Amino acid sequence: MTGTILLQQIINGISLGSLYGLVAIGYTMVYGILRLINFAHGDLLMFAAYAAIFGSAIFGLPWYLSFPLAIIITGILGILLDRAAYKPLREAPRISLLISAIGASFLLENLAVVFIGGVPKGFDRPAVFDHVIEFMGLRIQVLTVYTPLVTIVLLLGLLYIVYRTKVGKAMRAASKDFETTRLMGINLDRIIAITFLLGSSLAAAGGIMWAMKYPQVNPFMGVIPGLKAFIAAVLGGIGNIVGAVVGGFLLGLGEIIIVALVPELAQYRDAVAFVILIVVLLFRPTGIMGEPIIDKT
Amino acid sequence: MVTFFKLDRLVMQFGGLTAVSDFSLELHPGELVGLIGPNGAGKTTVFNLIVGFLTPTSGQVFWLGEDVTGLPPQHITARGIARTFQNIRLFTDMTVLENVMVSLHHKMRAHFWQAMLGLPQYRREDRRIHEEAMGFLQELGLAHLAEEKASSLPYGQQRRLEIARALATHPRLLLLDEPAAGMNPQETQELAGLIRSLRSKYDLTVFLIEHDMKFVMGLCERIKVLDYGVTIAEGTPQQIQCNPEVIKAYLGEPKPAGGTETCSK
Amino acid sequence: MDRENRNVILNTLSILILLGVLFLFHRYGSLYQIRILNNMAIFITLAVSYNLVNGICGQLHLGPNAFITIGAYTAALLTMAPAKKQMLFIIQPLIWPFTVVHAPFLLAILAGGVAATVFAFLISFPVFRVRGDYLAIVTLGFGEVVRVLCNAWQSLTNGPLGLKDLEPYTNLWWSWGVAVFTIVAITKLINSSYGRAMKAIREDEVAAKAMGIDPFRHLLLAFLVSAFFSGVAGALLAHLITTISPTLFTFIFTFNLLSIIVIGGLGSTSGAVIGAVLFAWGGEALRVVESQIDLGFVKIPGIPGMRMVIFSILLMVVIIFARRGIMGRNEFSWDWLLAKMRRGQKG
User: Fold this and answer.
1) Which of A203, A235, A254, C217 is the most exposed, fewest CB within 10 Å of its CB?
2) What's the domain count of chain A?
3) How large is the ipTM?
4) Angle subtended at Cα C193 by Cα C8 and Cα C133, rounded to the nearest 5 degrees
5) What is the CATH number of domain C3-250?
């Protein structure tokens, strides 16, 4: 395999990885505060893609309006998801929360089937994202380059919010010690809602870029990417925002490079992420950027 | 000679905070030793270090000649050290009898498939566990509550059940974490008597944490005092009572001369 | 007579009645009814064993579909005649020794269970060593991996083409025989000291460890037992539907099982049985929602996907508002039934 092809695959891997990272952020933020794996998070990807389609197809909006709108609507859906499925179970045992999350995920997927139909739809990629650039002997889709750039910008924006605003401070406090933060009179419900809003919006951005990259949209399109994004979050250290993006990059790169090096493994592609999860759990369960566990209680 | 029980310079650090520093202790078979100190002094942390819920930053735990530092809790229990919890952690959805039977499980000699097929080897073991568990309940005066849900017991009985099930693990060393918490003076008296009789009947060594001074002074043969993770005194109840460091730790300043009549100047 | 003897007599009586009912359906029942009864029995087997991990141990295991698939494929590869296998594997020839193996049904079922157990053992080490939360994702992922493997490993599974024309060995005797055995064996396990240890882990893992219980050993035990019965059920299912493919046992299957035990009552074997019965019976009834309803004066078009929407909503409503489900953690007992009957007589 030549150097240029390797370089091409690396760029592909980073691009794919940034999508995983965007979605992983939402998982990691919600897990950090609520200790909950939001199974329905991956489906928000799907919801955003469909929302964008509807924006253009039904309301005739240009992409620079329908995309942000879809992101905002998905963010709001995230808040509603928490209100309906998770808030009533704040005091319930963990397993109940997880079950509710699974139920919510299935509900979203099948509502999409009912209202939109199970037949995959095409996603109109706006022309501005549709051309190919050439440099250093490589031909790359411009979208492949935009994706990681957008991800980094969004990540920086989020980090600003989390580390430089009062709201962010409250989020970090809630993530470290839920009970104490509540006792300090901080409106936890608001913090949680904002967490879901931010995480879901990022997932929505990821979903739209995903739909542009793989322009076939169907109600179950968020399942596998969601699963992989969660694995990325674990890989990077669950609860750690930067870790989620780092984990995403590593997972995307790993997936692409492994298949590029060993083409026979192409059909086992999806299983690669799972193997990585097992390895992480075996050797460094707190992830790359997490702290080792010392307390066994 | 085989070391019975020894804690050798245990240190526990959480990030920047030192919860326990340089804690050493030796116990001899049959002793009744107490650990006291103001709230947050690190007493329960010491217990957690002994039974393996925490791994010390440095230092060692020796039990019956073996270095058991950092072994998981279930292995420590299997080796004969049992503990009760400061805030009772009974299995609330199970009956009183079942709570005690759980403690006897680690000595179960029949296999799971013998249980699934209802084979006689299992049935015998199950009967044995039933009988032994009832025995422990009787010992602690709880036999009449055997079929009640653990959560329905009044507080005092729950504390007894905590002790019963720790006892049922067949320990040689029993760690009691604030066993008298929330008890009135009469109950506390009964508890002291109970601990003494259990110690002699089951050949136990007892190491306990308590806040109730009268209880500790009246019961323990030797006392260690902890403050901010540091051992500030060790000795007989007499010696501890008169120790100015101890008094300072508890009251914040040395007591005026009048209150310590029994202490020598 | 004392309680234990009375229970043994009542239990035996019930089984005899069950045998009678099965015989009647076997002789005179319609194909449709027999299919539902077979489904019911297989779902009972699956739900009761699934409840062992999720309900008794309190761990969220999302991969039973993987073990069902493994059991199905293993059994199918063993019961198929070598000649048929040769015909079927057109893309890539089947690997040895499956080319020559030809086993009777009972052996195939057991092999299905064992194969599933082996796989369960292999993945359980990383998962249970760390944190039970990740069990959910890892088991879910494992289901995906099994699907990928079945699709890709064509020299073993015939890939996307799947295995067709299996002998319909599964009849009411096999399916209900297995179901009854499963209920008995797992109930005995739950009521044993091992079951108490598992419940203790569910109640308070920290306290359980302090009492000498090794959580890993017991969670592993539950997981392996559950996998075994899932594999057996998969084998039965394969020889009921007579065609299996990689996409047959998806996460939707797991979701249905989860709904069954939650609605029946997480932690109750009786609840799992009730849930399975309701599902096999009602699930069929609900199909009507997806096909056209002809009320005579108006035709309501069927809505595909509506069935799953209803299930999802049902699951969420139960877990949010009626967490204990139908039975809670209680079990059916003869004491309870007789007491109810006596009260009925007095009133």
Assistant:
1) C217
2) 1
3) 0.90
4) 120
5) 1.10.3470
